[in-house]
Queue: 3 jobs
Job 1
Amino acid sequence: MLDALRSNLPTSFPRYASPPLIGHRKPRCPPYSVVSNVDQLLPYLDVVARRPYNQGLHACWDLKPGERVQLRVDNWHDPLVIEACKRILEKYGCKYDILFVDKGPVRQWTGADEVEYYLHRTKELAEWMDQWDVMSKEGKYDKLLWGYGGPVLVDTHMKIQRMPFITPEILASPAHLMPYELLQAIDLWTWKRILTAKRVRITDPEGTDVEYTNHDGYYDRKREFLNPDLVRDTWTGNEGFGKTYLPGHVLGKPWVYLAGKEDGNGVIAGTTNHIAPVDWTQLVIEGSQIVEINAGGEFGEKLRKLKSETDHLSYPGFPGKGLFYWWEASIGTNPHIHRPRKDFPSGWINCLYERVRSGVIHIGFGTIISSMNERRAAKAGLPVGHWHLHLYFPTVRLEREGDNETIIEDGRLLALDDPEIRKLADKHGGADLWLQESWIPAVPGLNVAGDYWDHYAKDPMKWVNAELTVCREFHHLFMPMVGGDPSACHDKYGVWGGGPGAHAVAAGKMPVCSEAHGTHMPGSGCCGGH
Ligand SMILES: [Fe+2]
């Protein structure tokens, strides 16, 4: 018998006779290591402390002796992580203080919470940015390390960088040992290709098929940067930030609106936003505007309500009336980012972090985050915010004149297979260590046996809870259970959880590959015993 939810699905809902990715995009999970002391966390922060400063999403603290730093944390951060940060600020001779905020009890999340969450956070971020401007003028600090980071109008006086480390599980990962020149090369490989595309088409087996024209009007004459006029209007006072990609967050769609020419058309569908998994949600896009929101359970209902409340409003810099315009298809670039298994989804542990895994795309619609136009709208009392759907297995095809190119295939960012990038990885310990994704989600009906709707898309949180519990508590069983690829499961380089490889990288050496580092009991039969 057809269930009631299924009968409400649009005809374009993806239906597969067999899981389309089952043979070639198998699930992967990283080792689950328990961190019990601060020393296990220091190698990662040591690398982060030395990465050159930039405003992107890779943690790049660039700590200098005598630098006046404020680190902002709260009671949703693990105390061990805060202690490790203190130790690293001391090691690098910074004059630091820690602003500790009490956020009250740690909240548990559902994906539908994203709607209010970003209405509230975006307003708060706009206020933070005003606060940063004041702090920059006061000149008390050289650098802020704040959770979200983000742009200040002029960062010559005070720099802002990220504090994405919530728990030891998030911090003690090779994602934060990655050599910066390699991350930068992957970012640039991706961005340079986007810059030259005439049209961009994004498809994904969860039901996305959308394309847009990458108009000359978005760019300067040489197509090196975004159009200075649009940047000046959208990112007033912060043009240096707005004119190009954000490291770790490559713009698969320009983060400016080009009035009269926005032609994003098609459908976008997914089962995850920045907060948590959500019931399968579909957006119908015409002229880069969301004209219809289908299914989505409670998330869909809340979005439809907000859309009806804002469709008649005029926003500064928008191509037409309404809040629900599609502006973002940003691409993550770090192969070792993974979804945290402990305490997911609660507090700061949500899906925001995982959007920066290489090849994952997050679709964004609403006001352009931290842009001046968003701040103007917030000051005018308009509801501001943007909302998301994540694509974990996207294929991105760039259309040029005669030489089209695929840059992401079924979630694999093809920069990771580029010979030059692999050569660069070899300089630092090898492509096997740095350029294999540690985490590929297991999705029944896509890369795991089962029916995409019945076993996953009608209630993805139910599956993800089961998945993360098994992966955390019975790690040796998880990959064999889902028919996954065990290659990331064993920590053969000792780079997880403060292993010897992590200490080696922090000391500027290459980690040694050894099966003995594996976190599983020998002979347990896990992942075929290797
Ligand atoms: Fe984004």
Note: Confidence is low (pLDDT under 50) at residues 519-530.
Job 2
Amino acid sequence: MGFLADSLSRIKPSATIAATNKARELKAAGRDVIGLGAGEPDFDTPDNIKEAAIKAIRDGLTKYTAVDGIPELKQAIIAKFKRENGLDYKPSQVSVGTGGKQVLYNALLATINPGDEVIIPAPYWVSYPDIVMLGGGEPVFVGTTIETGFKVTAAALERAITPKTKWFIFNSPSNPSGAAYTHAEIKALTDVLVRHPHVWILTDDMYEHLVYDDFTFATPAQVEPALYERTLTMNGVSKAYCMTGWRIGYGAGPEKLIKAMATLQSQSTSNPSSISQYAAVEALNGPQDFIPRNNAVFKQRRDLIVSMLNQARGLTCPTPEGAFYVYPSCAGTIGRTAPSGKVIGSDEDFVTELLEAEGVAVVQGSAFGLAPHFRISYATATDQLEEAGRRIQRFCGNLR
Ligand SMILES: Cc1ncc(COP(=O)(O)O)c(C=O)c1O
């Protein structure tokens, strides 16, 4: 109160960033910590992408650019949507931001009025509700369960829609559950949305390329063309292209929305880094063959950690279709006593005691809106992941 804006009291620092920082601090203090909190690939950015950035610097492409993206990058994004999703866009329908997060932020802040409702399936990526609340909107959570693979049903979506609903935020493959919706599962949801023309769809396709076992990715505007006029399809290079630090994300949708987003961006960050934009052109237009190579490693790690978690006493972990997260339930550990003498009363206690006893850092499910669970990011070296799995098993086995 007083000096700080009231709007700030509605939001909190990102729980995943907090968990990553805590692991980093403990490591710096000399503790043997395995961090499974961070949502980023451990793989390096491919060399051809790095070279494109170096060339941009050498060529002097280091000045301000158009606020919402250089024409070359917009063209690469248009080609990507056509090639991979069968979606047609014009440059005026494309917006490039400093990470997918800014695109999402711009879209929500450019459209939300106080009291507007935004439907968010839970568990959700931590930033959705906070951005909605910063804008004065109200997140409306639609719960899912481990039994339904953490997927929202058509009936639950329908029930959540009110005259005040502005957006439905859809994220497949999902952070934190890794759940990915099939074409048919998306169709069930888009059938509902078609009947409610005042609801816009914000689809976060950030993990599009990270799917396993021959899963076929689909996105709402492709599944139901009738929704094209009210869908913002968001994506980015952070995850699949191992470019989290470069900060490039993008979205495509109706021109009036894209224009409003550019106005907002013009009064905050202006253009995303010119150098990163040239790197992203190479990412989207260049060779894509490293993606299946990385995915083969991710899949192996997913299978390893799922199997190890299911052998830990009190844990249950389904096998997700995509992303690089698993979201086990720790319901079977609640009420047991940790080596410190503390009784585990919640997933937050589980996570704290696991870090204390075994030096394994994960993120509590309550931060993502579905407890008692925790999130593991398996985008970490396989030997470290295996060691973490052993420690989790030991921790669970030692609970009294
Ligand atoms: C579901 C989801 N959407 C968006 C983002 C943001 O990506 P970026 O790093 O490009 O801002 C993330 C990153 O963790 C994410 O998990």
Note: The radius of gyration is 21 Å.
Job 3
Amino acid sequence: MAGIQYEGGCFCGAVRYAMTRPPLFTHCCHCFDCQKQSGGAFAINALIEATHLPLTQGAPVAIAMKTDSGRPHDITRCAQCQTALWSDYGRRGYLLFLRVSTLDAPHAIAPDAHIFTRSKVPWVALDGALPPGSATAKPALVCEVYYDMKSVWPAESLARRDTASAAAKR
Ligand SMILES: [Zn+2]
Ligand SMILES: [Zn+2]
């Protein structure tokens, strides 16, 4: 497959995917929902156009999650081992939040921003170090809640997001 940047899959190996572009932006999300749903201290989500996350093997299933906001949130999981592979927040279809830890090289992508740090576990220290592989090439932003996308994302990522959104409306 042309343009493969990364490959990954679920724990049992039934589902495999490719990622054919670097992510638009990557979050470490420290919200309580991510902690509960992952069983960990945070979720690492790389935002990527759905068209650049082709499935290469298997048939994962989307499971609807309850949210405080009432907006839809589907988590796509392997039907066999139930590994969470990516989320579609708002059921937009064109933008997916890939769980970075499911990559074959899970440390290849570093977060550009830590979000919802108001609920982070107290023993995770955010030292402002420059993570290798971040889209912004700046120390990851640390946000109590969220940030203003238009002033934070690289121009190229904003343009890619607009293109994906416009294509989805067609
Ligand atoms: Zn599996
Ligand atoms: Zn979260």
Note: The two ends are 26 Å apart (CA to CA).
